[in-house]
Design goal:
28% of the residues lie in helices and 20% in strands. The protein has a five-stranded antiparallel sheet with strand order 1-2-3-4-5. β3 and β4 form a beta hairpin. By secondary structure, it is of the alpha+beta class. It has a single domain (9-124), classed as Aspartate Aminotransferase, domain 1. α2 (21-37) crosses α3 (112-124). The longest helix is centred in the N-terminal third of the chain and has 17 residues, at 21-37.
Amino acid sequence: MDQGQFLSTLEIEHILEKEPAPLQDIARELRSLIAVAAPQATERVSWGALAYYDSHRGGPVRGGICQIEVHPDHVRLSFIHGVHLADPDRLLQGDRLSKRYVRIDAYESAPWDALKCLIAAAARFDPAVATPDQ
């Protein structure tokens, strides 16, 4: 599979510099998981978040894998096609038509292995071939 394109460390540090240190740590760890679970991802800032998508499938919506959204007291890992993802650990929250998210309040309590599985599943999901019950 092709390598994606991630922002530079300097760009990421500039984006995260005003966020509380514990939330920066969570965002950095999520980026590391995405780089491993979805190496084909393209990273960009979109909608005030770090967005990851598969450019071979489309842009940030159609080819969307996930987003890292830093909020004042937590980080959300959002999946634009989250309603279609298997979630055996029941981590996904939200009631939007398709988007779901995992709220991460602290680095130490984050379910890192389960998050990596969700990212990998999102990276494999192709809405062009999805069926209504998927």
